[in-house]
Amino acid sequence: MNAHLQPLILHAHSSGPNPVKIAIALESLHIPYVVKTWDFSDDPNTGVKGTTFLKINENGRVPALEDPNTGVVSWESGACMNYVRRVYDIGNAIGPPGGSAQELVDFDKWEYFLLTTLGPMTGQTNWFTHYHPTKNDDALKRYQEQTDRCYDVLEGQLQKSGGTSILPSRVTAVDYHFEPWVRQHTFARLSLDNYPLITKWLGLMDSREEVQEAYCKIRGIGK
Ligand SMILES: N[C@@H](CCC(=O)N[C@@H](CS)C(=O)NCC(=O)O)C(=O)O
């Protein structure tokens, strides 16, 4: 099927973590795609807050995913991931590993935990570490502690697989959601020293071909 597909268009930023998740999923499923890179300005032609991009995503953020094969446009990494899974993961290679009610909920809860909690807390840590115009130690401490708390929760979950995947039986789209955010621990100036299983998991994820290919494409590096 994939040979007859027109490439999907993944709207991305060269370093933001959310678009990479979708690139990893597309790589994993061997779905052809091209990356269109935007900056974070309001330039009408190049920025996510500019008129051209706002017609694709009125929220002015990446990722957005255009599928010329279906005419569907999605944005928000959770919605993009679910679209890719529904339409292209026919064999359930990256979805919930089992079909029981509990296994379906387990997939959702870890995906939502990243989207609503670990990702945003890391993002706020980054903001108060690097970008906030005035020093705000209270806010920074709050978000650092909350991100560490998320690491505690993730470390506990990884005990179930010995650090090989977030859901116990195999790597799924849940791992793809987490990888770019956990990778950001260095930029967020957070240590993984107390998290041996997260460290192991991140190393395994980063050695996977779909992860390496995705980063090369998002960063515009040919292989
Ligand atoms: N909750 C959204 C967030 C998307 C998002 O925040 N993307 C960042 C890049 S990783 C962005 O576009 N930032 C632009 C800005 O802050 O103006 C998702 O999961 O896709």
From TrEMBL:
Residues 6-92 form the GST N-terminal domain. InterPro entries: Glutathione-S-Trfase_C-like (IPR010987), Glutathione-S-Trfase_C_sf (IPR036282), Glutathione_S-Trfase (IPR040079), Glutathione_S-Trfase_N (IPR004045), GST_C (IPR004046), Thioredoxin-like_sf (IPR036249). It comes from the Eukaryota. Pfam families: GST_C (PF00043), GST_N (PF02798). Residues 100-223 form the GST C-terminal domain. Belongs to the GST superfamily. This is Glutathione S-transferase.
